[in-house]
Design goal:
Elements: H1 4-55, H2 80-99, H3 106-116, H4 122-127, H5 172-195, E1 212-216, E2 222-228, E3 252-257, H6 267-279, E4 286-290, E5 293-297, E6 301-303, H7 312-328, H8 333-337, H9 341-365, H10 369-372, H11 389-406, H12 410-416, E7 418-420, E8 429-432, E9 450-452, E10 459-461, H13 463-473, H14 495-507, H15 521-524, H16 544-586, H17 593-607, H18 635-652, H19 663-672
Antiparallel strand pairs: 1-2, 2-3, 3-5, 4-5, 6-8, 7-10, 8-9
């Protein structure tokens, strides 16, 4: 039996151990809080650094926020009060560290804290999955080798949270549909867990059925969903030394690529472009990728409607946003040397178009066409391109040569190139709805409420093409229940509306004052002779007549630029129609088409075998034969209707003669021709 002294010593040692344990716990908590503080301050400094480009040229005398100080992404900006609070918290922690028992000197106690603060806190990371925001906009997003099947969840309803009580009277089809959505949502949760998307580790796999998944309309190339976490999540299971945010996981935008667009869009190149845009805070941030899609940052915003594009104020805002994109992203040397992407797209898609359209033309001319037309509407509409494929292709290639010559040659066209969005339809323009105190509500910043998304077709093109493409989108209502593919060319903006749009674009100056814009007059078009002689500097002091002369000269130069770009818009509109006709043809799905094309290629390869010296011909891109969902977009009808726009432009420009086209085609064009 130990003596009293031994017992006393043991108690003393136990008390020391307990005291040391408590001190270690306190120090561990102190280190964790301090490292979190350091991480938060670094993150905010990085945010400010990303904004410095936009504010570096701001006028010092101005106290009002400039347009350049508002970034595209709707992120919260730390206020001065918050920064002060962080600094104050840091002082309290350092003071606490230097006053604890056993602290020999303030400097020796602070040093290990600062040293450890350079490393990420394991406890914080453990409690919040990856929980980190990329500070390097160029860093590629995480990816996973997984395929997300959405073929049974293409409806716009059905992705609500699973209810506990299931109606026993529900049909078998409804039950299967519900099961398909649960399977789809389970796969979503599995992928976001693997990607370690911020906050989503809080959603356990067994609650996958409780997430909300809503399909959005408006996207023709992809299926787009909004993914929202369950409304009620269990409290996180963590130890006492772990800092865990109780903020719910953020909503996600899920984009699943269409099955027929691999030969339309280079996804790796698209991701590279999105990373370049991320450096300028343009568009949504890519959070993670998988084999047939990706997760993006979700904006609390709504897409514009087709009617809103025609509203004068909205049109001005789009023009300003367009100018900011064109000036904000510098083209790479290889992009400029590659020429306008519209030419490259045509060259890339034309072989597939020829395979598809040649087969379609032969089917229309076959004896069985009339019998099949009862169940296949495309057969009743006639040639997809309005004429046989070889005639259409020759017309496009002739126009392309004429366009290059009329623009001053390919070198001049390359000089005009800008980084263009190329698909500014209303579904790709979102309007944020800011809070009452947001700087976005200031008159000078209202255009920044518009957020541009879907950059998969972005590339080098001329401003004239960008305008033509946007103006043509005024003619479409992709939500029309019966004619979502139809081009209402009477809705094309009038010359006055075009003038106002281009004028707003040219007068908007997103760059710093005093800099030369890449879209200034010498760059957009060949230098024109001045309307007035240079001012005589010997006349004396500048009087009213001289001031009015300067103003008139400036107005005259501005008018020249506007009218030049309107002319370019008219010219590039024809080539734009040809591109989108090809786009629709490439995505067309017709029963028996793939088999017919394969047979035609096999026959051709057999007849040319000796000439090819044993080399096989290029394989046809395979298109999945899944049955079309009810209400799918009619790509062939879209292409055929757009072909009417193409031919009407050529007729109006007198580049083709009426007698060179079929009489029914000419009559149809005349019935809808509006020449702008």
């Amino acid at each position: 039996m130990p003596s009293l002294d031994d017992q006393s010593g043991a108690k003393h040692d136990g008390a020391q151990d307990q005291s040391k344990l408590e001190e270690d716990t306190q120090q561990g908590l102190l280190h964790q809080v301090y490292e979190w503080l350091h991480h938060e301050k670094t993150r905010r400094q990085n945010r400010k650094a990303r904004k410095s480009e936009a504010t570096s040229h701001a006028t010092p005398e101005s106290d009002a926020p400039t347009e350049e100080s508002l970034l595209e992404r709707p992120r919260s900006n730390p206020s001065s009060e918050t920064s002060f609070s962080l600094d104050k918290l840091e002082k309290i922690l350092l003071q606490y560290a230097t006053t604890q028992p056993g602290s020999e000197a303030s400097s020796t106690q602070r040093q290990p804290i600062k040293k450890q603060s350079r490393r990420r806190l394991k406890g914080l990371r453990r409690g919040s999955a990856s929980e980190s925001e990329l500070t390097d906009a160029e860093a590629p997003p995480p990816g996973v080798e997984a395929y997300l099947d959405n073929t049974k969840t293409l409806a716009y309803t059905g992705g609500a949270a699973v209810e506990e009580n299931i109606d026993s009277s529900a049909s078998v089809k409804q039950a299967k549909d519900a099961d398909a959505w649960v399977t789809f949502k389970t796969e979503i949760v599995r992928i976001v867990h693997t990607l370690q998307l911020k906050g989503w580790r809080k959603v356990p796999a067994d609650l996958a059925g409780n997430i909300e998944v809503v399909r959005l309309s408006g996207a023709l190339t992809n299926a787009v969903y909004v993914v929202e976490p369950p409304k009620h999540l269990p409290p996180p299971k963590t130890d006492s030394n772990t800092l865990v945010s109780r903020k719910p996981p953020p909503k996600l935008l899920l984009r699943i690529y269409g099955p027929q667009v691999d030969h339309l869009i280079d996804r790796e190149k698209e991701l590279q472009i999105l990373r370049r845009l991320g450096k300028k805070n343009i568009g949504p941030r890519i959070l993670g990728t998988f084999l047939n899609g990706r997760f993006e940052e979700y904006f609390e915003a709504r897409p514009l409607t087709h009617k809103e594009l025609r509203m004068p104020e909205t049109a001005k805002q789009v023009a300003k946003r367009m100018r900011e994109l064109h000036e904000g992203i510098t083209l790479l040397e290889e992009e400029r040397e590659g020429g306008p992407m519209i030419f490259n797209n045509w060259d890339k898609w034309v072989d597939r178009c020829e395979q598809v359209t040649t087969w379609l033309d032969k089917e229309l001319e076959s004896p069985q066409n009339e019998a099949k037309a009862a169940t296949e509407p495309w057969r009743r509409r006639g040639y997809v391109c309005g004429v046989q494929w070889d005639i259409f292709r020759k017309a496009v290639e002739n126009y392309r040569r004429w366009l290059i010559a009329s623009s001053g040659g390919i070198a001049e066209i390359k000089r005009q190139l800008v980084f263009a969005h190329n698909d500014t339809q209303y579904g790709n323009l979102l309007r944020m709805e800011p809070a009452t105190q947001s700087p976005l509500l200031l008159p000078a910043n209202e255009h920044k409420q518009l957020v541009v998304i879907d950059f998969e077709y972005s590339s080098a093109n001329t401003p004239g093409f960008e305008f033509a493409n946007h103006f043509t989108e005024w003619c479409y209502n992709y939500h029309d229940e019966e004619r979502s593919w139809a081009c209402n060319n009477r809705a094309y903006p009038t010359p006055e509306q075009q003038y106002q749009f281009v004028s707003t674009y040219l007068t908007h100056k997103p760059g710093a004052a005093g800099t030369i814009s890449p879209l200034s007059t010498p760059t957009i078009h060949p230098r024109a002779s001045a309307a007035f002689a240079p001012l005589d500097l010997d006349e004396g002091a500048e009087g009213p007549s001289q001031a009015s002369q300067i103003e008139k000269f400036a107005d005259d130069e501005h008018d020249k630029q506007v009218r030049f770009l309107m002319q370019q818009t008219r010219l590039w509109r024809v080539m734009g129609s040809a591109q989108w006709i090809a786009w629709g043809i490439v995505q067309a799905k017709v029963p028996g088409m793939e088999e017919g094309i394969a047979e035609a290629l096999a026959a051709r390869d057999g007849s040319n075998k000796d000439e090819q010296n044993g080399e096989g011909s290029q394989k046809t891109p395979q298109v999945e034969d899944d049955a079309d969902e009810e209400g799918d977009f009619d790509y062939l009808a879209y292409s055929q209707d757009r072909a009417m726009f193409f031919w009407s432009d050529l007729l109006a420009m007198k580049l083709v003669k009426e007698e060179d086209l079929p009489a029914p085609l000419v009559e149809h064009i005349k019935s809808r021709l509006v020449e702008y």
